[in-house]
Amino acid sequence: MSTYEQTFENASIWAIFWRFLLISIGSIFIGVVLILTFMGQHATLISLVTDGLIYFLMYKVTLSQMKKHSLSINALSRPLPETERSLFPVLGLTALTAIVAYSFIYFFMTLLTFIPVLFDLIMPHLIDISFTEELPFFYLFVVAVFFAPVVEEIIFRGYILNKWVDKYGVKKGIIFSSVVFMIIHLQSLFIPQLIVGLLCGLLYVKFNNLLYPIFFHAVYNFIVIMPSAFIHYGNPEEAQETLLAIQDTLPVEFVLTSILFLVSLPLLVYVSKRFFKSLRKTNSPYYENILLNE
């Protein structure tokens, strides 16, 4: 382990960013070619192929940048303890976070009904990014539960968080990496993904093991996408009409879900404080794992 760098301080975030941008552009081009080749058929399969390609290449780029800077891939995680009982409280934290995230969307829309100017301005865009594209559950399951948790945690916690913790300290490293994580998840209305990013960062720093944020991320995504297996919004026009109509007549389920958000958010804050109350670290997970293996 002594041949490896002890910190991520010299690792390049920009090198990761511009390569990801090229990967995204290239994958979009491949997707367009495949759609034209199959004349618009097999859209779900094509999306799986292109998204899978994006995640695979992002994973390879991240690991190649680590090797370039003489960083140990193994030191991203320390060995698991003999018992995995610590995953049970993480599971409870994850379920509570998913409830907050799911109810936040309804709370936000309910709040907009009391501000007509903002409702008319924001609601059409909210519908466009969140409700009009109904993707098959199989696609959501594969991408959200398998691809995204593993690759995104390696990138945002394993690479970016370690980099910024080594450079700016634990608190700023968690916050900065979470803000970037939030920004790339536009369709989630930012706040839920900010919460997810913060909790994944805290879990990584607490346990020094990527398994915990990966587990949290995968279970969270699974809970959030589960309603799509049973609830169908119909075509985009019907969904838009239904949601725009809540300004005139607010459905009872919106009120109840908003109340659920107002109850579950303080509970999540309380549980998180209890769960992470003993967290007093000044080093990155990578640095601590390097020292452990020397």
UniProtKB/TrEMBL annotation:
Family: Belongs to the UPF0177 family.
Span of the signal peptide: none
Domain of life: Bacteria
CAAX prenyl protease 2/Lysostaphin resistance protein A-like domain sequence ranges: 137-223
One Pfam assignment: Rce1-like
Biological processes, Gene Ontology terms: CAAX-box protein maturation; proteolysis
Protein name: CAAX prenyl protease-like protein
GO molecular function: endopeptidase activity
Entry keywords, A to Z: Hydrolase, Membrane, Protease, Transmembrane, Transmembrane helix
Transmembrane segments: 12-36, 42-59, 87-117, 137-156, 190-207, 214-234, 254-271
Record-linked InterPro entries: CAAX_protease, Rce1/LyrA-like_dom
